[in-house]
Structures are given as C-alpha cells and as structure tokens.
User: Fold NR LBD domain-containing protein from Panagrellus redivivus.
Amino acid sequence: MVNKYFIPFDKVDKQIKKFVLHQFYAKYHMLESVYQTIKMDAFLPKNSCIVFNGYILDEHDKGAIVSQTSIRHELLQHLALMLKHYAGCKKSVERLKIDDLERAAMVGMLLWQEVASAAPLWNEATETQQTILNELHAHALQKVGIAKAGSRIGALMSIINEVEAVARVFLERETMEKVFDSKYSDAWVAVEG
Assistant:
C-alpha cells in the first residue's frame, strides 16, 4: 500500500511539496514516536518516551530538551501541553493495538490530507486518500469482523485527530522560536531543492 499510494506525490508542485512536508513532518514524527515508545516500552526508563530522532525524553525532566532562551518558560509550557496530548494519543494507540498496516494507512492519510488541503482541486490527492481508506476498511474487516470494522476505522481516524493536535502544538512552538528566539534556525527555509 505505502509504495503504491505515495507515488502521486512526485506530481505535486515544488512549493506545495515543501509546505506539505513541513506540516507532515511533525505529524509523522508524533505518530512514529508514539508507536516506537509503545514498541520499546520494556526497554525504556519509566515515565519516558521516544521523541524526534530516537531521543529519549524523561517526562519529569522536560527542561533537558529546552534550551536556555528568553522564552524558555513559554517553550516549557508548550512542551507540557504537547506531552499531555502525546499521552492521550499513546493510550489510544495502546488500547487499539495498532498493527503496521494500520500505522502505514494512518501515515498515508496524514500525508494525503495535507496534500488535499494544500491543493484542494487536485483530485489525485482525494482519490489516493479514498484508496487507502478502502484498503484500511478491507483490512479492518479481516482483523475485527464486520460488526467492529466501522468503529475501529473511526477510532483510527480519531487517533489521526489526536496526532494533529500534538503536531499543532509542536508547530506553534516552532513559530514562537522563529519569532522570539534569534538563535533558532529554520531547516525548512533551506529546503529549496
């Protein structure tokens, strides 16, 4: 599914691609860090989670990943809010025992939802979302049966909303750093190729 339905992305305009990838990056990493934290839970210290690029964050030492800056207090508040949303998302993923195909489908839905928002008249984005959703539905039917398939898909879409809430707080923090912290460098500005 992933190989086949990520292909139309190469047809997207370069500026739209840059915008979509910036938005998608935060969402993908939130979902992936929740998934990896659950997967590696037995090996992680208590009250910790895997965040970006495999860094292990102790939830009782949030300040370890927030630099000394004039807006440190605000950044710590955003981090606390992000971790609150993260914990809720993690509980939902644990409760559902999401498998790799469901995770891949959610990643695909997140990507194509961003593309559809950025290029609303591009039908391939909507068609690709529908194809992923159809395959997810077929998978859910096999996994939980006809009586529970609809509620499972609804629960997976709810997790997507939770991931978006976490990512929104992350992107707000990023914006705060761009505006108020002169040391902040935006990697996305460098993405021109």
Observations:
- The mean pLDDT is 83.
- DSSP finds six helices and two strands in the chain.
- The first strand starts at residue 48 and ends at 50.
